[in-house]
Design a protein that fits this description.
Chain lengths: 238, 406
Amino acid sequence: MSHAPMIEIKDIVKDYVNGDETTHVLKGVSFSIKKGEFVAIMGPSGSGKSTLMHIIGALDVSTSGSYTLDGQDVSSLEPDELARIRKQKIGFVFQAFHLLPRATVLRNVELPLIYSGIDREERARRAGEALIAAGLDESRHEHLSNQLSGGQMQRVAIARALVNDPAIILADEPTGNLDSKTGDLVLDTFQALHRQGRTVVLITHEPYVASHAERTLLVRDGLIVEDRLNTDKVTHGP
Amino acid sequence: MRTADLLEEIYLGISSNKVRSGLTMLGIVIGVASVIAMLSVGEGSKAQIESNIQSIGSNLLMVMPGMQRGIGSAVSSGRGSAQTLTREDADALQTADGVLAVAPDSSRRFQITAKGTNTNTQVVGTTPQYQTVRSISVDSGTFFSDPQVTSRSKVAVIGPTTRGDLFGEDVNPVGQQIRINGVIFTVIGMTVAKGGSGFSNQDDMVYIPITAMSAYLNGGDTVSTISIQAIDQESMASAQANVTEILLDRHNISDAASADFSVMNQSDIASAASSVTNTMTLLLAAIAGISLLVGGIGIMNMMLTNVTERTREIGLRQAIGAEKGEIVGQFLGEAILLTVFGGAIGILVGYSISFALSRFMSLSTQVAWSSVGMAFGVSAIIGLVFGYYPARRASRLNPIEALRYE
């Protein structure tokens, strides 16, 4: 089963229409990502990498082309169907963390499970495990999330992304709001998750951040211009 | 998402900004409290007027003189101003079918004096049957008798309020002398307090024989009212018809429409009085309703601000898989919880206000359960109506823009 692609993207085009003017943001992007891969999607701002991230993350749909995630066609779903895909298959990690400020760490991590209808005890158990997997020990689980440092907040966000056992973890500039030292610790966490067999997609504009992945897709002007393996990082052969 | 979890999210949403939630709730609290308090004043005065009307007797018909019209003239003087009813009319009604007792009275206000004190009150010249018809009981002494009426005795039965004004509380007035318009009368009894107040105080009265009234005070043989007690509730209508017929006949009037008297029954009086209080209650309720509406708009205002402030949170919830219905449920739920909770507090506050009004301002108030239910229901509906628009707006946010919102 490890040979079936987790993400399969074919000829994705995304146009934005603003009045009479049409902007072609993605001009026919194709690639696939296998289960267990750690892939960085890198590109300068305006390259279309954020739009690509939104499509991979089922936050948006493409104008044309096909997108299959974990065997399911996601190309043309309605908003509520997209919401269910995000709930079941995608764990997001954002640059700005997006934690609920007046809720405890544990509650923040439980949130995706609440929307999945998991009962209370199961929720607390799985959220606790996810926090430990993300490197946050139990002493901090009852803290309010706005009492934490940036690095700790991002670990909470990673735990939240993990807790539903998603098909992919999609991280959008996860180190953008962190200093380089805590940024490295967060990148180490992603590498650890990758070693546990998780599929991780990292969106970044920094080559240094991208170098932590085993494969880099370089996006420029709405096209994939380079697809290379960072041979020293490969732990699961393609 | 489970319902219990949704409720918990709603509770956490509200409790995470306590000051703002409290202020929003205040609008509803004030609205509901004023509806309850205002309606309680309206209901209370209605109940008081009804009990006043009940206290003047039971199964009561009252014959009042009608409008007086000069011969060949279309000019009418005020209703009740005619002097067309006489004691003979009253005597003639004694034998009418369905009539239990008849008491004519001739009433006027006079200045009354007793050793160094004086008061101005209603003096009712009547017959002993008045006691039965108007359900008056005597506390001390006796009511005057038929022989005393025949002999024009200068005796008086006074009400407890009048006793207080003339002799002071806790003084037995029996045997004391009072001067009514300068004529000396001996007090032979005092009535039991009926507790009426305001509109026709039944305790501030002086009763004297009707013959003494016409001989020494009023002059003439006319009466101001004939009070009639019907045998029972069922015979009220037939008694009213018989009385009307006899009087029309005695007054030689063929057309009932031009009668020079009017016969009212107790329920007519009650419904006339309650139509006044109903109008007042409606007016009060309308004022209170407006404040409830303002409270509802406050809810909408707060929820719209809330949606804007929590745009990023909404974006996150959408990103981790919240569907439209779940976002609507959360924000609508917050609005409804605020209004329902505010409504509950408002009921308590309104109840306390109405209690305080009756306790400290001697206004009679009565909290009707229907008004409590209505205020509560209306506030919940306000939450639903004014909460829906902001909730729908939240659910329609684009998750990408919501996540980026600064």
